[in-house]
Amino acid sequence: MTFSWKRIYAIFNKDMKDLSKNYFVSSIIVLPILMAFLYGGMYEMGLELHYMIINLTLASVTAFIQCAVIAEEKEKHTLRGLMLSPASLTEILTGKSLVSIVLTVVTLILCAMITGYEPRNFALIAIAIFISIIFYIALGTILGLLSRTVVEASVIILPVIFLFGFGSLLMVLAEKYPAISFVEYLPNIQIIELAYEVELGLGFVDMWDHFVVLLVWALVASLFAAFVYKKREIDK
């Protein structure tokens, strides 16, 4: 079976049309934008606030929309048909992920324009965010496969939004309670630490460890998403 961009585009186009009709799901994009207006207008934006909005976008827009588009296929009983179609696993997940990627990038750009965030090294930050997007898409895919309906997906995603969207607050607790110091290895914390090093003028060789941690999160989540997908394919 050959890799087909035509099949990927067909899946992407279908999901974009479905999402444009589902205001319950698409309205999630408003959340980080409203937060950007709120904090951008009230506070002197420090790096922590910039990345709270970025992480919130990744957790709410990327993960939730990915979760919702998968769950919607299950709710409509069309996921099984998609699994049995000529499209491969890579084509199906790529087509569905493109919707989340496009909406995430648009939301991030709008939020950055509102808050005035201009990283010292755009390339390094862009790479880190792209790797993070892969992680959140994989996470959203897993949760979508475990959900039965879009409403259920909107509930199951809430812990993800709080943990990864506002997870930087956990660092305050980690300083007080060393037992939860492992939270510093969460992807949302790693990208904040990486951003601070970027602002200090450090290069890739000085922060490669953060990229490795982000890549590990993305790889493990992607492999697990593929495993869950294949298991659902076999079970049904």
TrEMBL record:
<keyword id="KW-1133">Transmembrane helix</keyword>
<protein>
    <submittedName>
        <fullName>ABC transporter permease</fullName>
    </submittedName>
</protein>
<keyword id="KW-0472">Membrane</keyword>
<feature type="transmembrane region" description="Helical">
    <location>
        <begin position="21"/>
        <end position="43"/>
    </location>
</feature>
<keyword id="KW-0812">Transmembrane</keyword>
<dbReference type="GO" id="GO:0016020">
    <property type="term" value="C:membrane"/>
</dbReference>
<feature type="transmembrane region" description="Helical">
    <location>
        <begin position="210"/>
        <end position="229"/>
    </location>
</feature>
<feature type="transmembrane region" description="Helical">
    <location>
        <begin position="153"/>
        <end position="174"/>
    </location>
</feature>
<feature type="domain" description="ABC-2 type transporter transmembrane">
    <location>
        <begin position="53"/>
        <end position="226"/>
    </location>
</feature>
<feature type="transmembrane region" description="Helical">
    <location>
        <begin position="49"/>
        <end position="71"/>
    </location>
</feature>
<dbReference type="Pfam" id="PF12698">
    <property type="entry name" value="ABC2_membrane_3"/>
</dbReference>
<dbReference type="InterPro" id="IPR013525">
    <property type="entry name" value="ABC2_TM"/>
</dbReference>
<dbReference type="GO" id="GO:0140359">
    <property type="term" value="F:ABC-type transporter activity"/>
</dbReference>
<feature type="transmembrane region" description="Helical">
    <location>
        <begin position="122"/>
        <end position="146"/>
    </location>
</feature>
<feature type="transmembrane region" description="Helical">
    <location>
        <begin position="92"/>
        <end position="116"/>
    </location>
</feature>
